[in-house]
Amino acid sequence: MNDTVEARAVKIAAKIMVAAGICRYDCTDKCRHMGFVDEITCDRCIRNWLLTKAKKELKQEAAHE
Fold first, then answer.
1. How does pLDDT run along the chain (65 residues), one tens digit per residue?
2. What pTM value is reported for the model?
């Protein structure tokens, strides 16, 4: 299965954020995965967050056009 360029970019961004220790939350206490955090969980969480943010931005841009 081939990924779109955008999907691949999101995967790369998520991996970079995980490797850098960056969390989508300003405080790790807010993480709902707190007790069982691992690299795969963080990667999925960040990837989903990035996709959600991107979709929201695209909707806002479409609304302003």
1. 567 888 888 889 989 988 888 888 877 677 776 666 778 888 888 899 899 988 899 899 889 87
2. 0.73
Query: What Å distances lie between residue 28 and 6, 8, 15, 25, 31, CA to CA?
Result: 27, 26, 18, 6, 5
Nearest-5° Cα angle at 14, 40 to 27: 80
Going 17 to 22 to 23 to 25, the CA torsion angle's sign is negative
Structural element, H or E, at residue 31: none
Of 48, 1, 43, 44, nearest to 18 (Cα)?
Answer: 43
Tell me the domain boundaries of the chain: 5-64
